[in-house]
Amino acid sequence: MKIVHKIYLSNVVHIILILLIGVVSLHYLNELYTKFRFTAIADDLNATFLEMRLAEKNYFLYGDAAALSDIHAKIEKTTATLHEVKDDVIRAVGPASYAGLEEQLDNYGRMVAAIRQDGRKDQEARQRLRAVGQNLKIYSEKITALERDNVTSIITKSKTILLFAFWAVVIFAISFSQQIVRNISNSLRRIVDLTKAISHGNFQPIEEKGSDDEMAAVITAINSMAMELNNREKEIVQSKRLASIGVLVAGVAHELNNPLNNISMIAQTYEDVYDQLSREERIHFMNQIEEQTERLRIIIRNLLDFSKPKEPHLTRAEPNEVIQKTLELVSNMLEVSNIRTTVELADVLPDIFIDEHQIQQVLVNIATNAIQAMDKGGQLTIRSRYLEKEDEVEFELRDTGKGIPPEFLEHIFDPFFTTKGEGGTGLGLWVSYGIVKHHYGNLHVESSLDGGTAFFITLPSCNKVKRCTDVQV
Predict the structure, then answer these.
(1) Neighbours of 118 (CB within 10 A)
(2) Residues paired with 317 in a beta bridge
(3) Which residue has the higher pLDDT, 188 or 327?
(4) Structural domain of 54
(5) Predicted pLDDT of residue 472
(6) Of 282, 288, 250, 441, nearest in space to 358 by CA
(7) Does residue 1 surpass a pLDDT of 60?
(8) Most C-beta atoms within 10 A of its C-beta, which of 301, 303, 393, 405?
(9) Residue 194 is assigned to a structural domain of this protein
(10) Are residues 248 and 176 both part of a single domain?
(11) SS3 for 12?
(12) Where are the alpha helices (DSSP H) in 85-122?
């Protein structure tokens, strides 16, 4: 469900809950209103009944004949009032209580009418009228008291229900909001992790959990972007590798010419002296040609291995061997450029878990940059060491070139940033940085103007990368 639909659903549920609270509240308010109306009516009735009881006393104690007429008038008025508010009374106390009150009032009215007709004032008539009047008064007061209790009960119940409904709405709102916030936060966290991984050269897509909300659409788009960037990076890596081949060819051409010249000279000599040679001497000539041919084959194989596009393939590798293989690729270029090379390799290094061709590309790219920075010759120092505290292997390539201006250092690994003007693409170090980061390593640079530049490549050892412990070299 999309986030906007979840919010709409939340609003609908809140509105329904609020409407239910309103309906319940209105119901209890109407019931309270009915109870209060009856209470007012009952208070008037009780006051009237009290006046009737006082008129009884006036009749029996003081012989006031008009008192019975007054009681009769009040009974008729009360009866008429009861009929007028019958619906309200029945709604408040129920039909049974209304019928009981009406019956008590009728009994009292008939008793008053009988005494009024006979004119009796004896003790028996007084006791009978008093008993009926007392029953009417007690019954009325009982109903009134009961309804007051009902009012209190309704108020208490409505307070409880409203309080429960209020907290139900609050809890639902908080829970639903937290769920939405949690979903958004988790998706944003995954998006941030992915973008960080992309910035470090890791284009592995993050898992989509089957949701169809807006965040899932964003994750899908970023995953698509990561796949496209991965494809573009492969193209850039390959183009940079081919560009490096172009630079290497200048140096390799010299070494290719040497064995070719040797083969040509041996062949010419062999042709001239063929008749004077013994079988052993002829075999010796052929062996020399085979040696020079093998030398050519090794040079060409190294170039082909370096230039072939390959899927990343991580294996255990011995760090110093990686450096030695890289030196074989750039040795002639260093010689042609009049650059001295110092190699200081640690005696004992743990294996590393790498794609050897990719790391060779990083080393060749940095070495090529160093050669270009020392256009008048210089010194290239290559070192390997073990960083015991971090359990990492470090490669150092230090040149004596012109150095990098301080204001450029923080941008040196940015894509398309170059200090070579139109002669550079600004992608070599960016690609190298991504390759090293993809190997969970680090690449940093130190440089000063006219003081040379040093690149440091750190890679975790196989002791640190658990997944390479089962891989045999």
Answers:
(1) 10
(2) 352
(3) 327
(4) 3-181
(5) 40
(6) 441
(7) no
(8) 393
(9) no
(10) no
(11) helix
(12) 86-93, 95-118
Q: Would 196 be classed as within a structural domain?
A: no
* Residue among 20, 153, 41 nearest 91 (CA): 41
Percentage of residues in the chain with pLDDT exceeding 90? 14
268: Cβ contacts below 8 Å, ≥ 6 apart: none
Signed CA dihedral, 473, 470, 318, 298: sign only: positive
pLDDT of residue 432: 85
- Domain shared by 295 and 171, yes or no: no
Same domain, 325 and 265: yes
386 CB neighbour count, 10 Å cutoff: 17
Helix (H, G, I), strand (E, B) or coil at 391: coil
To the nearest 10°, the Cα dihedral for 291, 294, 296, 298?
Answer: -140
- Indicate the pTM of the whole model: 0.44
Question: Is residue 175 domain-shared with residue 271, that is, in the same domain?
Answer: no
Relative to beta strand 378-387, strand 392-399 is: antiparallel
**Residue 446 φ/ψ, nearest 5 degrees:** -130, 135
Query: Residue 160 has which token pair?
Result: 């409880």
Pairing of strands 378-387, 339-344: parallel
Q: Residue 33 carries which side chain, given as an amino acid letter?
A: Y
- Assign 443 to helix, strand or coil: strand
Residues 120 and 262 both lie in one domain: no
Residues 6+ apart with CB under 8 A from 436: 201, 359, 362, 442, 443, 457, 459
Paired with 382 in beta bridges are 343, 397
